[in-house]
Amino acid sequence: MALRLLHLLPANRWKILAILFALLNLKSLPFAWHVRLLRGLYLHVRSSRLRLRTHPGPSTLFQPMITSTRASPLECDYNFHKSNSTYLSDLDVGRLHLLVSLMGHGIDITRQELAKEMPQEKGGFYMALGGVACNFRREIKPFEAFEIWTRVLAWDHKWVFVIGHFVKPGTVKPGRYIYQPWKKKTTMTTSTKRDDKAGAERMVDCNNGGKAGGPHPAILASAIAKYVFKKGRLTIPPERVLRASQLLPPKPADLETPPISETPVMDGSSIGGASIAAASAAEKLTPDNAGDILASALTPNVDASVWDWQRVEDERVKGMRIAELHKGLDALNELFAGEDAAVLGRY
Question: Can you tell me the distance from the alpha carbon of 79 to that of 131, in angstroms, rounded to the nearest whole number?
Answer without folding.
Answer: 27
